[in-house]
From TrEMBL, chain A:
The lineage of its organism: unclassified sequences, metagenomes, ecological metagenomes. One of its GO terms (cellular component) is plasma membrane. Residues 50-238, 318-506 form the ABC transmembrane type-1 domain. This is Unannotated protein. It is found in: Cell inner membrane. Gene3D superfamilies: MetI-like. PROSITE patterns: ABC_TM1.
From TrEMBL, chain B:
CDD domains: ABC_Carb_Solutes_like. Keywords: ATP-binding, Cell membrane, Ion transport, Iron, Iron transport, Membrane, Nucleotide-binding, Transport. Gene3D superfamilies: P-loop containing nucleotide triphosphate hydrolases. It holds the Pfam family ABC_tran. The keyword Signal does not apply. This is Unannotated protein.
UniProtKB/TrEMBL annotation, chain C:
One of its GO terms (biological process) is thiamine transport. The keyword Signal applies. PROSITE patterns: PROKAR_LIPOPROTEIN. This is Unannotated protein. Signal peptide: none annotated. It comes from freshwater metagenome. Keywords: Signal. Gene3D superfamilies: Periplasmic binding protein-like II. NCBIfam families: sfuA.
């Protein structure tokens, strides 16, 4: 198996090497300048931005955990009718483009007071509650309820039970979730641009300002390098502090709500607060799609325009945009999932490390790299339509490998051995035994990569398009056009996205 | 000591216990037997306050504890298997209840030393639960349940899943522990021989349901 | 197992399809590529006449907003993504010239960045509409104006340049201090200024004055949900800063001849007349006839504020630094 495992690593190596490492190295090689770096990290304006990026990300993590953990507890420890739909609603924003989430937050807050710190935290919490749900939830489900029972009969108040029994059990996965949320919020771009107001800017937003508005690629690169270093530092600190994971307890049936001693009001309170945070902006978007703020009356013109041959003021129809987005999401998943699987099976630590880098590298660095690398034959691919889903696959790669890895390592070796003894070749063992066991993880990975593709905004904005406009781009273009019709169309398009996502996520 | 009157419990629409009444005299050991799925564990959980009951009342020493939360009932519980806190050492497991009662370190140490001796695991205080054998882990679980000197000890199939030798050894040990600590006990089991070995009174759970 | 086969087949076919499209598009010379900003939405079928004349089809490639498009063009100067570039404006032109992006260029359209006002708001209160930059800092107009961050927004930059052109290099800073004291609202971008803060677009918007375009009033009429005959907004002419967009041949194109023909076509009467209602800009070609709604409601000031592209490029960074100093 070892030799074929090494062979398997080749495909993801080539993929990441060509579409990630090469462009990033190109950018760094051409635009890194030590004096610019020195000037940048000593410039008080940039220091202020770095400091803001850091503390707003930390605050976002705290807010998300405060809202997300109780909801995760309710959804993973108690079963009740409708929990699937609620799970769907809470998970949905994760796959939504920043422009949909952020404009939902804009729509729910009063118009002249909807930028700044509160909307940023709100949008970040909305996005990331599902990260808590997805990372901490499965772990929490594994906690043997008898441990909690034992603690209770030994006189532990529920608070003490949480501190002494539950927290040690979920600590590591909570830290993992917190780290991921931190990285997302630290490098936040779309949300910041839309609801940040002009003074609340992250490094990622400033990287785009420097590279695009001011044309200063060297400063942008210096900021990108600083950003990587800061994330690396936080990553190292958190990782060295979290210990080994205690072995999983066996899975059990969740007790129905009516039969536990949990106060039902606490359960409902935990869920209601999370649903309010996530749901209000979504409902506000649906509301805005049928209510015009300027004429202060109801209208279905936005929905009608989705059926027109062209969206108001645009060169494309809603159907085209939806088809493009769906197709790119599918292609991104088709590229990403098999390659991630190969990377996971190859069990190559260095490959694993490289595959996690797209999370920390600024989208602008990658975007610039793509257009300066793929500009000569035979690799003049920069305006090829397929580069878009390929880049989406690169950006989704860290998420999918991390989804598949635990599922793969959880397969007991004895199973492989028995298959081998029964005469199965390693390949047959892989396809007949391992793939079916990993089925649910493979679906999750597929969903994640499709989600990244649907929402990606940063690196793709560097790629030129010809008739391949995607949802987030269409929505922001509609919002940036004068006139009520494009506005209504933008909200109707967002609303469509929301309805479809919730439908899909409550089944996933 | 313990009086359960007209207790009913259901999971969703499924009725688990209907109109069950039971009295356990102080100082006795009562065994409740019945096939799996007959609601034996549910009865114990209801007595401990771990689940919400639909109707009925529970009295301990003539005090109505029906609405007292589990952590204030002071009932020792020993579950089927594997409910030692995996993040704590054996000693920390045993002392957990005393910590919740805010007992000082000396008191806790004295009590756990005594109990570790009693279960013949004096050298095992610093071990983690996952390094113990099945029989050892059960003994620790019993010691942990007895640490706060609960007036009532309930045990849910404490001997299932052990090999014959360990089973017999542990049965003798548990019987001795109950006697030495003079605790009122309820033991739930599907094994009639086991029930007879432990208990003064053996009750079939199906006989507890009173006709309406 | 079957699923994996399917994936492999789909992947393979996707790659084949991709390579097919790439080779077919590169071997043909009967296609000319026009690189434009995202909001370039020409009339449907407008290039049919060009294809009839030359036999070549026009492929429109959108490359992000103007800033992104120019930045990318600079990074790929000499080895461009297309043949012709549409829409570099006077705030970016000089930067593109410095990087030698275009081998030739000409102005193709123009428009103005002006303060717009909510007609109803001023009518209802019987307050006179301000008519100049100076008015905007008077106490009766305190807290009424919303503008955009000039660092990240093109209209925001246009407004800043307008004030510099009007007050001069030495006095604009003082004017902005006065604006700040008069409680000017700073929005991050055009959409949030126009759709969230501007009272004419939103029932909860509080600002009856907003920086937008001279062509915004006719756009309000064209893109109204329910037909209206009169825009609800007006333009303060004295605040208008001229924005000129250019079209040029990208240096390094292998299609120079066709590219030049396309530029000529874009400057021709037919295309120029289609621009007002699709791109909301004024034609540069004097022969082009304006549509009625434009003639009626779009403002084209006789003496707009102007600034040389070179002066903009030379000073932009220091002006923005100064501005950032004032506002952060």
């Amino acid at each position: 198996m070892t030799r074929s495992q090494h062979g398997l690593a080749a495909a993801p190596w080539v993929f990441l090497g060509v579409f990630f490492v090469a462009p990033v190295v190109m950018t760094l090689a051409i635009f890194s300048d030590i004096t610019v770096l020195q000037e940048t990290i000593t410039n008080s304006f940039f220091i202020k931005i770095a400091w803001f990026s850091l503390w707003q990300a930390m605050l976002s993590v705290v807010v998300t955990l405060l809202i997300g953990l109780p909801a995760t507890w309710a959804l993973s420890r108690v079963s009740f009718p409708g929990s699937q739909i609620l799970r769907g609603i809470l998970s949905a924003p994760f796959v939504m483009p920043a422009v949909v989430v952020a404009s939902g937050v804009l729509a729910v807050l009063p118009a002249d007071n909807n930028t700044g710190l509160i909307p940023i935290l709100w949008a970040h919490a909305m996005f990331n509650i599902s990260v808590v749900l997805r990372i901490v939830g499965p772990r929490w489900e594994l906690l043997d309820q008898r441990l909690e029972h034992a603690a209770a009969t030994l006189g532990a108040h529920p608070m003490h039970t949480f501190r002494h029994i539950v927290w040690p059990h979920i600590k590591n996965s909570t830290m993992n979730a917190a780290l991921l949320i931190f990285i997302y919020c630290f490098t936040s771009f779309g949300v910041i641009v839309i609801v940040g107001g002009f003074q609340r800017r992250t490094m990622e937003a400033e990287i785009f300002t420097q590279a695009i508005r001011l044309g200063d690629t060297s400063t942008a690169t210096a900021l990108a390098v600083t950003q990587i270093a800061m994330i690396g530092l936080v990553f190292t600190i958190v990782r060295t502090r979290s210990g080994r994971e205690i072995s999983a307890q066996h899975i059990q049936r969740r007790p129905p709500l009516s039969s536990t001693t949990h106060n039902r009001w606490i359960v409902w309170g935990a869920i209601a607060s999370a649903v309010a945070v996530v749901g209000l902006p979504l409902v506000a978007t649906l509301w805005r799609s049928i209510y015009s703020r300027s004429t202060q009356s109801f209208t279905v013109s936005g929905w009608e325009s989705l059926l027109d041959a062209r969206l108001p003021g645009m060169a494309y129809s809603a159907t085209e945009v939806l088809t493009n987005s769906a197709m790119f999401a599918l292609l991104a998943a088709l590229v990403c999932v098999p390659l991630s699987l190969a990377a996971v099976v190859s069990n190559n630590r260095f490959l694993f490390f490289v595959s996690s880098l797209p999370v920390v590298v600024s989208a602008a660095t990658l975007g610039i790299g793509l257009i300066i690398t793929f500009d000569v034959d035979p690799i003049a691919w920069r305006s090829q339509w397929w580069l878009l889903p390929v880049v989406h696959a690169v950006i989704a790669f860290p998420l999918t490998t991390r989804t598949l890895h635990p599922a793969y390592t959880a397969i007991p070796t004895s199973l492989r051995h028995s298959a081998t003894v029964l005469g199965a070749s390693p390949l047959r063992t892989f396809f007949h035994i391992e793939i079916p066991i990993m089925k649910s993880a493979l679906w999750r990975a597929t969903g994640l990569s499709a989600a990244v593709s649907l929402g990606e905004f940063g690196a793709t904005s560097f790629l030129s398009r010809s008739g391949t406009t995607t949802m987030p781009i269409a929505i922001s273009q509609l919002m940036g056009t004068v006139g009520q019709a494009p506005q209504q169309a933008a909200f109707a398009l967002s609303a469509t996205f929301i309805i479809v996502t919730i439908g899909v996520m409550s089944r996933a | 000591m313990l009086k359960v009157s007209h207790l009913s419990v259901s999971y969703g629409k499924e009725k688990i216990l209907t109109n069950v009444s039971l009295t356990v005299p102080t100082g006795s050991t009562t065994a409740i037997v019945g096939p799996s799925g007959s609601g034996k564990s549910t009865l114990l959980h209801a007595i401990c306050g771990l689940i919400t009951i639909e109707s009925g009342q529970i009295f301990i020493d003539d005090i109505d504890v029906t609405s007292t939360p589990a952590h204030r009932r002071n009932i020792g519980l020993v579950s089927q298997s594997g409910d030692l806190f995996p993040t704590m050492t054996v000693r920390e497991n045993i002392e957990f209840g005393l910590r919740m009662d805010k007992a000082d370190a000396d008191t806790r140490a004295m009590r756990s030393d005594f109990l570790l001796d009693l279960i013949s695991l004096a050298e095992y205080g610093k071990r983690m639960p996952d390094t113990l054998s099945g029989g050892q882990a059960r003994r620790v679980a019993v010691a942990r349940a007895l640490a706060r000197k609960p007036p009532l000890l309930v045990m849910d199939e404490p001997l299932t899943g052990l090999d014959a030798e360990t089973h017999d050894e542990l049965a003798t040990d548990i019987k001795r522990l109950i006697a030495e600590t003079a605790t009122t006990a309820i033991i739930v089991t599907h094994d009639l021989d086991e029930a007879k070995f432990f208990a003064d009174v053996v009750i079939d759970i199906r006989s507890l349901t009173e006709p309406e | 197992m079957k699923k994996i086969h399917l994936i492999a087949v789909l992947l393979g076919s996707a790659i084949v399809a991709a390579s097919c499209t790439s080779s077919s598009s590169e071997n043909t010379t009967t296609e000319v590529t026009l690189v434009a900003y995202d909001s370039f939405t020409p009339e449907e079928g407008i290039f049919d006449a060009f294809t009839e004349q030359t036999g070549a089809t026009v492929k429109v490639v959108t490359a992000g907003d103007t800033g992104t498009m120019v930045s990318k063009a600079i990074l790929t100067a000499g080895n461009p993504e297309g043949d012709v570039m549409w829409g570099i404006d006077n705030t970016f032109l000089s930067r593109a010239q410095d990087a030698n992006v275009l081998s030739s260029y000409e102005p193709v359209d123009e428009g103005d960045i002006c303060v717009n006002y909510d007609k109803e708001w001023f009518n209802e209160r019987a307050i006179a509409v301000p008519t100049s930059f100076e008015d905007l800092v008077r106490p009766e107009y305190a807290g009424l104006l919303t503008v955009q961050d000039p660092v990240n927004s093109s209209p925001g930059l246009g407004f800043l340049l307008g004030t510099i052109a009007h007050f001069g290099d030495n006095n604009w800073e003082q004017y902005w201090r006065a604006l700040k004291d008069n409680k000017v609202n700073m929005a991050p971008d055009w959409s949030s200024a126009y759709y969230e803060a501007f009272s004419a677009s939103s029932d909860t918007g509080k600002y009856p004055l907003v920086v937008s375009y001279g062509s915004s009033p006719p756009a309000e009429v064209v893109f109204a949900e329910t037909p209206i005959t009169e825009p609800t907004t007006g333009v303060i002419e004295a605040t208008c800063f001229r924005q000129t967009e250019y079209v040029g041949v990208l240096r390094g194109t292998k299609n120079t001849e066709l590219a030049e023909k396309l530029v000529e076509y874009l400057l021709g009467k037919k295309f120029q007349e289609s621009m007002p209602l699709t791109l909301f800009v004024f034609p540069i070609n004097k022969d082009a006839i304006l549509p009625e709604v434009f003639e009626k409601f779009a403002v084209r000031p006789a003496n707009p504020l102007l600034m040389e592209p070179k002066k903009i490029e030379d000073n932009r960074e220091s002006w923005l630094d100064t501005w950032r100093g004032l506002f952060s």
